[in-house]
Amino acid sequence: MASPLVRSLIDAGIHYGHRASRWNPKMGQYIFAKRNLIHIIDIRETVKGLLRAKKFISQIVARGDDVLFVGTKRQARDSVVHHATSIGMPYVSERWLGGTLTNFRTIRSRLTRLAELEALEADGRASEFGKKQASRNTRERRKIARNLSGIREMSKLPGALVVIDVQREHLAVREARTMGIPTVCLIDTDSDPDFADIPIPGNDDAMRSIETILEHMVASVREGMRARTTAAEEKAAAEKETGRRSERASARVDDGAGGGSAGKPHVDASPPGGASDGTATVTATDVAAADATATPEAGG
Q: Distance between CA 42 and CA 30 in Å, rounded?
């Protein structure tokens, strides 16, 4: 009997590939059969890739890095926005701008410009410009927001990319490879699996198939976030316990320094001539002098 995971993948139609005439020979290892001139993807390879991807994404998020979701095709756009927003991760759903990763500093400057334009409208200063300049500012704001709103909160390069359709998003995959960022890709039978670090062979055209893969990726991100939170709490508790031990150790040292004179023997610092209360004090010098005086008398 098929497992619930396999059943859900089959129900989503993830095993349907492209027409056999459009296939990429490198995808041969992921193809199970050909039915009515359409390639059928081996569901076992899909499950294997999906499990590897889920484990990897969970580890990436647990160590504190973000995951960038990329899907600009019509079938994937809404799902990418919905799922990435639900977990607070960056996404690209409209158009991949060249240099998003390799020229990240310039991209951040455009986001700064977006904040300036929004501030102009919020403060009412936009009316100070002429009609033509105001129209230019509005078009510029809409264009930047449309292309870059998904990565607005991305202050550093992501730890990994989740890409829908490698063939369409080849620019994003190439930039990720240049920057050394691993990629998790849903690849169809017409794609090149060499572009993906962790390929998930499956139908990248059906909305249900894309939705199913993204749901599993989101679940892995949530798991990584829980692990990240747990690690942070454990670290804070360990630092707090270390602080308490340091305070106790300092207190013991202070107590030892304050009471150390109580255990030392008393040293008599009275002058040789006698004690301060008038009582004579006999010393070794007095005894020697007495013996020297008594010796001649005993001999006489």
A: 6
The phi and psi torsions of 199 (rounded to 5 degrees) equal -80, 140
Whole-number Å distance between alpha carbons of 20 and 35: 9
The three-class DSSP label of residue 232 is helix
In the chain, what are the domains? 4-101+157-232 (3.40.50.10490), 102-155 (1.10.287)
Q: What is the number of helices (H) and of strands (E) in the chain? A: 8, 8
Ranges assigned E (strand) in 20-64: 31-35, 38-41
SS3 205: coil
Cα distance between residue 36 and residue 22, in whole Å? 14
The residues pairing with 185 across neighbouring beta strands, listed in sequence order, are 163, 199
Consecutive 10-residue averages of pLDDT for the chain (300 residues):
82 90 90 91 94 95 94 93 95 92 90 87 78 86 89 92 93 94 94 93 93 95 92 82 75 65 48 46 50 45
How far is residue 173's CA from residue 70's CA, in Å, rounded to a whole number? 10
- Is 206 within 8 Å of 75 (Cβ atoms)? yes
Q: What is the value of pTM for the model shown?
A: 0.76
Contact 146, 94 (CB under 8 A): yes
